[in-house]
Design goal:
The protein is built from seven helices and seven strands, in the order E-H-E-H-E-H-E-E-E-E-H-H-H-H. It is of the alpha/beta class. The longest helix has 23 residues.
Length: 256
């Protein structure tokens, strides 16, 4: 579906839903027929108002996203008026979709206003890893939302990938707020250890032992980083320490 205008409802797409419960007493088959007829007319009126509210797309299609249940009769008239209906169970995803499409989640069933309608460049269904996924695509410059789809063989691997992406995104987020950053990859720990050793050398009392031990505790960060990377600790610890006496130098776990 190309260039759709989307209406989003946080309430069920069901004309029978009401704030209070009532009981209807039917005495004949004619009354039953008239009751179902009025229900159908009401459902058709609601769906027609949504279709006529300017949510028209190319190929005469419309798009409706619902955050609740969808009744069979409403679904029937949605197909009649060529409305594409997507059911979203999660309130978080519904809120995120509103932000993406610049739409308003309606709490009442009826025709949306122009300000409440969202837009997208393309909406389509595709299969990712044997699971059908509905894609809402919006490539315009004012779109401030993006989605990353992660795939992995195990849940533990997926959790690690998600954590890495989350760290990277929040690092960039912090960079936009404050550009002052400390060097990483064991550089800051190595520098702190060197500074504490230099300070310990100036002391004459027992405090110098505490300073030296505290300096060694910082070096453990660099030591563990080298060990986990599979390199020679004794050889590289001295190199990292020597490099950080001149300028901040982190340890590259790929090249060593």
């Amino acid at each position: 579906m190309v260039k759709p205008r989307v209406a989003i409802y946080a309430c069920p797409l069901d004309t029978q839903q009401s704030d209070t419960k009532g009981t209807v007493l039917l005495k004949s088959a004619k009354e039953l027929m008239n009751y179902t007829k009025s229900e159908e007319e009401h459902a058709e009126k609601v769906i027609r108002s949504i279709a006529d509210a300017g949510v028209k797309l190319f190929f005469n299609f419309s798009m409706v996203v619902v955050g609740g249940s969808i009744s069979d009769i409403c679904m029937h008239y949605a197909e009649k008026f060529k409305l594409m209906v997507v059911k979203v169970q999660s309130k978080f995803e519904l809120k995120r979709l509103c932000k993406c499409l610049k739409a308003v989640a309606l709490a009442r069933l009826g025709a949306p206003s122009e300000d409440e309608i969202g837009t997208a460049d393309e909406v389509y269904v595709t299969e990712i890893g044997s699971q059908k996924v509905t894609i809402f695509k919006r490539d315009s410059e004012d779109c401030r939302l993006a989605t990353l789809i992660l795939r992995g063989s195990t849940n533990n691997l997926l959790d690690d990938i998600e954590r890495a992406v989350d760290d990277a995104v929040h690092t960039f987020k912090c960079l936009l707020k404050d550009q002052r950053f400390l060097p990483g990859a064991g550089a800051i720990e190595s520098i702190l250890g060197i500074k504490l050793e230099q300070e310990a050398a100036l002391l004459t009392g027992l405090d110098q032992y505490s300073y030296n031990k505290y300096a060694q505790s910082f070096e453990q960060f660099v030591r563990i980083l080298i060990e986990n990377s599979g390199f020679n600790v004794n050889e590289l610890m001295s190199k990292v320490k020597s490099a950080n006496t001149k300028k901040a130098s982190g340890f590259n776990i790929i090249t060593g």
